[in-house]
Amino acid sequence: MSAKLIDGKAIAAAIRQELRERIAALDKQGIKPGLAVVLVGEDSASRVYVGMKEKSCTELGIYSDHHHLPAETTQEELLGLVENLNADSRIHGILVQLPLPDHIDENRIIEAVSPAKDVDGFHPVNLGRLVIGLDCFRPCTPAGVQELLVRSGVELSGKRVVIVGRSNIVGKPLANILMQKAEGADATVTVAHSRTENLPELVKSADVVVAAIGRAEMITGDWIKPGAVVIDVGINRVEDPAAKRGYRLVGDVHFESASEVASQITPVPGGVGPMTIVMLMKNTVTSAEKALAKRGE
Ligand code: GUN
Q1: Are strands 247-250 and 236-239 parallel, antiparallel or unpaired?
Q2: pTM for the complete prediction?
Q3: Tens of pLDDT along 142-177?
Q4: Does the CB atom of residue 52 touch ligand 1 within 6 A?
Q5: What CATH number does domain 140-273 carry, 3.40.980.10, 3.40.50.720, 2.60.40.790, 3.20.20.60?
Q6: Residue 192, H or E segment
Q7: Is 222 a catalytic residue?
Q8: 169 lines ligand 1 (CB under 6 A)
Q9: Does residue 118 line the site of ligand 1, with CB under 6 A?
Q10: Are 140 and 283 in contact (CB under 8 A)?
């Protein structure tokens, strides 16, 4: 391995430290940031993610209001809960964990969350503001990817970024963040996906590759330009009889081969994952600060 490891855990810890100061300042004003986390059903990966989000709240002194609803919950019931949380002054952020069961229309739920409490940055108002460069809540994973790049000293201005994956949660918002006329951005961004022709060739043209397509170890070292920076957003379970749980976690990048060619690379786990959680905490603290500022108006 010749690439330098981008340590998401260490970078997330540095951001948590910055947040502690902001939380202490809010505490002096009598405000504790509050995050409501809503999980519907029994998706095992979602349970793990939600558990990590709650642990992070507790550790930072953010009030965490957990709602675990059965898989049979109706859309109306879920909309009712969201309405209650919108009106609850102790709650500054609302996160409804995706995916939701098939009988619930995800977009209806996302649009029901007040944009002022949409710490996931999924509401069309926040996404629209992101696209035109206005202040907004930025989706946590893309915002975390940008922080990783900036804090690892990666120059983005004028560089060619190829994002593999076009999801609403990662690919689309990340493209908008990195193409912004702004510091830590100004990149030339291409969004590729499962239908892209000559994908290996395109990826090889990139100074920065972001893999967010959800296919285990799809991007191999021979796709990477020597010296490129590789950010792996993927978390995939692959069977491994030798592992204690019977599976292991891998990214969308074949780490072993890619790390021979890249200049910097994120590991899975310990790369983007911890950043997503800390950016959620950051958005929640920002929301509490905004609520305080509004109170004073
Ligand atoms: N499912 C996978 N990633 C996310 C996320 O960032 N937020 C929510 N709410 N659900 C997710």
Answers
A1: antiparallel
A2: 0.97
A3: 999 999 999 999 999 999 999 999 999 999 999 999
A4: no
A5: 3.40.50.720
A6: strand 188-192
A7: no
A8: yes
A9: no
A10: yes
